[in-house]
Amino acid sequence: MSNNKKPLDKLLKDRGNPYEIELELAIRKMLENNTDLDWEFRKNQDQYGYDLQANHYLGITGKSDWDIQEKAFIEVEVSENWENKWPDHWYNYSFLTRKIRKYDWDNNEFKDELKDNADKTIYIIFNKNLSDAFCQNIKTIDDKFNIIKQGNIKNESSYNNTYHRLKTKEGKYIVHRGVDECLSYIQKFINEKSDK
Question: Would you say 75 and 99 are in contact if contact means Cβ atoms under 8 Å apart?
Fold first, then answer.
């Protein structure tokens, strides 16, 4: 490793920007190492869309052109408050509602409408050292989880403090937990999207 690169564990503990490219690359590598060779994960070029785009290489269409189809998306989050083991005081699985539903800025509230491509997106949350994770597809999160707004400030926007939340006991058979289980679920999910 060259001297100008930080080791991943240092990067994750000391990062000033939670969207650093090295972190995203580490997660992309993890996904690619656990899927077939004909899958590619790349940064979504739509800055308002989900983080990673899963593309399926279907075959060669000409002398050198590939038939590549966008099949699924992955929304990636790394919790700043979950470093190693699951915190004892966490009794819920929680996903940001702004990653799940569209927002009505005029009325300062979430619409009863999923974001574009939500039906083909998995939302995964990692701990800070990438040794644990939990995930589920966005449609299931919206169907099974309760929507909770935190804070009581009357004029405060609900955009940044509204969550889809479910008690961990209730989520035991709904949420996929652990890096290996999440990666297996992602592979199954994208393969199902590929069959359509």
Answer: yes
Rounded Cα distance between 51 and 169, Å, is 29
In the sheet with 121-126, reading across from the earlier edge strand, the strands are 39-43, 52-60, 66-78, 121-126, 133-137, 176-177
How do 101-104 and 109-114 pair as beta strands?
A: antiparallel
In this structure, are residues 185 and 34 in contact, taking their beta carbons and an 8 Å threshold?
A: no
Tokens of 103: 């927002």
Q: Model pTM?
A: 0.85
**Alpha-carbon gap, residue 96 to 148, rounded angstroms:** 10
Q: What is the pLDDT of residues 58-111, one digit of tens each?
A: 776 666 677 778 899 999 999 989 999 999 899 999 999 999 999 999 998 999
- Name the DSSP letter for residue 115: P
Phi, psi of 59 (to 5 degrees): 145, 175
CATH of domain 8-195: 3.40.1350
Q: Which two tokens stand for residue 181?
A: 């289980």
Which runs of consecutive H residues, i.e. helices, occur in the chain? 8-14, 21-33, 138-144, 179-195
Coil, strand or helix at 120: helix
CA 18, CA 134: separation in Å to the nearest integer? 18
Token digits of residue 178: 């652990």
Distance between CA atoms of 132 and 153, rounded to whole angstroms? 34
Laid out side by side, the sheet with 92-96 consists of 92-96, 162-167, 146-149
What are the domain boundaries of the chain?
8-195
